[in-house]
Structures are given as structure tokens and as C-alpha cells.
Specification:
This protein has 15 helices and seven strands. The protein is an alpha/beta fold and 301 residues long. The chain has a single domain, classed as Vaccinia Virus protein VP39 (Rossmann fold), CATH 3.40.50.150. It has a seven-stranded mixed sheet, with helices on both faces. The longest helix is centred in the C-terminal third of the chain and has 16 residues. The radius of gyration is 18 Å and the shape is globular. The protein starts with a helix and ends with a strand. The relative contact order is 0.16. The structure holds S-adenosylmethionine. The site of S-adenosylmethionine (SAM) has 22 residues, from α1 and β2. It comes from Maribacter arcticus. One of its GO terms (molecular function) is methyltransferase activity.
Length: 301
């Protein structure tokens, strides 16, 4: 599993740059264009929020747990558009500080270990782009991946009433995934071996499920699947829009980029993180169908 230090590396490092690029409560997960790429990124993210809130029957007063909440974009939506109540959990201190400053009820807590005694139970639960971080390469190599996901679904199960719904979206490996031994940061630029090696650098402590089937199977028998759709093409467009926003000039942001230069020369891992901004390995992985992306709605039975 990714630990707090890993998630601080991935998210807290870019906290201010992210907020200056995407807004204080920007989404850092695939939007929902449904193939209509004339939509703006903001419209497509809002369409995603609406889809999730509708799928989970979130209305006025619903109590919602947003696991792996990032900078709280979904929390912002359900508070303002549905008058719902929400608690958000993240493992990035920078995200939690920013969310609290913006008035959201967000804390640093590992969502995989939440118990009903902590906050009570919920009407609905979301985990948007969190599962990717729950199983490490080492756990996968030790054959523990399914156990990790089953334990997670057990946690969610205990927090919902029968009939309560859970939404998750997650990247998965897809039909062109290569062998782990082939991953190599020195491989040909643009190759699956190279971009997958960068992915592992960008998301330390993280490994993906092998297709949605693995996730759906691990959710049984406590959950039935209500709906499933691939967001792979939508994610490619999302990343293309993120790249423009990260590059858009803003004096403070460019100053922050400059302030990171010394670290670039002294920290090899950080140098790989910078390469990610140039290459967008996840976009290449989606294009090559090394990876896919799924939106899954579950109901507790
Ligand atoms: C890709 S971001 C998605 C953020 C947000 N859901 C969104 O859509 O913008 C992944 C998030 O997962 C969080 N995360 C990963 N593992 C976690 C864990 N075990 N407990 C709580 N949060 C976790 C990270 O801190 C980060 O906020």
C-alpha cells in the first residue's frame, strides 16, 4: 500500500501548483465527457459529479464519505448542489490543509481502516481514484492483491446500510500490459516499458488491479454491481486538458516551478516526477491500452 510519505510525494509536492492550475478544489481524476470533447474540462468534471451523485441517490441531508478525496471537488459539488453532508479523507497533508482552509471537513486518515465507531455509518460512499494506491508492488508480488481489495470492500460494507451505494473509479491494467520485469526507466522513450516505469515512480507504493473483473469479484458477495463503464478515452482528453492548465502562465506558479530546480539536481526520484509532467505516462498507457479506466457503481446486498 502507498503510505503517507508516498502520497505526500505525489500530491503534496504539487499542492500549490495544482491549485494555481486547476482551482482550489480541482479534480485530479478522469472527467466524464462521454465522448463529447467539445465540452470544457470543467463541464465534464461536473457531469461526472452529477452522474455519481445521481447513481448514489445523494439528496439533501445525505451523509456521504468521500474516501481519497483529493482537493475535495466532489465534496464541493454535493454540498453546493445537493445540500448533502460530507466527510473527506486523504493521506496527503497538503491536500487536507488546503481543503480545511477552503472550509471542507477533510482530514488525514487512511480510509481503508475506517470503522463505524469513527464517524458512524453513511448513506453513500465514494472512492474516486483511490484504489490505485491501495496495493503496492510488493503486496502484488506476494500474491496479496485480492486480499487487499477484499479487505477494503469489507471496510466499505461495514459503513453502509443494506441498499447503500458505493461509487469507485479506478485505473486498471488492460490487454497490452507488459511483464513487470520489462519496466525500465532507460527503455526507449514512449515505449510501454518506459512509461510504465515512470508510472511506478510517479505513484510509489501503488499497483493497479488487472481489469475491472478483479475488482468486481473482490466486491462479492457483499456488493452487487449496478453499472460499469470505461472512461479510458475520456481520461486521455482529461489529461490533455490538464497539461494545458499546468503550463498556462501564472507568475506565482512559474516561481514555484523555478524554486523546484535545486531539488531536480539533487533528488533522482523527484527528477522522475518532473519527467512525468513532460511525458504524461498515464496518457500514453491509456492510448496504448496498457491501462484502462473504469467507473463502477456498487450496492450493498
Ligand atoms: C488521484 S487522487 C484523486 C482525488 C479525488 N478523489 C479527485 O477525484 O480529485 C488520489 C487520492 O487518493 C488519496 N489516497 C490514496 N490512498 C489513500 C488512503 N489509503 N486513505 C486515504 N486517502 C488515500 C490521496 O491522498 C489522493 O487524495
Amino acid at each position: 500500500m502507498a503510505e503517507q510519505k508516498d502520497l505526500d510525494f505525489t500530491y503534496t509536492t504539487i499542492d500549490e501548483i495544482f491549485r494555481l492550475s486547476m482551482g482550489e478544489s480541482g479534480d485530479y481524476s478522469g472527467a466524464k465527457y462521454d465522448g463529447n470533447f467539445s465540452m470544457s474540462l470543467e463541464e465534464a468534471q461536473k457531469a461526472k459529479h452529477k452522474f455519481i451523485a445521481d447513481s448514489l441517490n445523494i439528496t439533501k441531508g445525505s451523509k456521504v464519505l468521500d474516501m481519497a478525496c483529493g482537493w475535495a471537488p466532489f465534496i464541493r459539488y454535493i454540498i453546493h448542489e445537493r445540500n448533502a453532508e460530507s466527510i473527506g479523507l486523504t493521506l496527503s497533508q497538503g491536500q487536507a490543509d488546503a481543503c480545511q482552509k477552503n472550509g471542507y471537513n477533510v482530514m488525514v486518515k487512511d480510509c481503508r481502516y475506517v470503522k463505524p465507531e469513527d464517524f458512524g455509518t453513511f448513506d453513500a460512499i465514494t472512492c474516486i481514484g483511490g484504489l490505485e494506491h491501495f496495493c503496492s508492488v510488493e503486496e502484488w508480488q506476494a500474491g496479496k492483491q485480492k486480499e487487499v481489495y477484499r479487505d477494503f470492500f469489507k471496510t466499505v460494507h461495514d459503513l453502509l446500510p443494506v441498499g447503500g451505494r458505493f461509487y469507485m473509479q479506478t485505473m486498471t491494467f488492460s490487454k497490452n500490459m507488459i511483464e513487470f520485469e520489462e519496466l525500465d526507466v532507460n527503455a526507449k522513450k514512449g515505449s510501454a516499458a518506459y512509461v510504465m516505469a515512470l508510472m511506478v515512480k510517479e505513484f510509489p507504493g501503488s499497483w493497479l488491479p488487472y481489469g475491472p473483473e478483479m475488482v468486481i469479484k473482490c466486491a462479492e458477495p457483499g456488493f452487487k454491481l449496478i453499472s460499469q463503464s470505461s472512461g479510458r478515452l475520456d481520461y486521455i482528453e482529461t489529461i490533455a486538458q490538464w497539461r494545458k492548465k499546468f503550463r498556462k502562465f501564472n507568475l506565482k506558479k512559474y516561481w514555484l516551478y523555478l524554486s523546484l530546480i535545486p531539488r531536480y539536481f539533487t533528488d533522482m526520484e523527484f527528477r522522475h516526477l518532473v519527467a512525468i509532467f513532460k511525458v504524461s505516462p498515464n496518457k500514453v498507457c491509456f492510448e496504448k491500452e496498457v491501462m484502462d479506466h473504469y467507473r463502477l457503481v456498487f450496492e450493498k446486498v
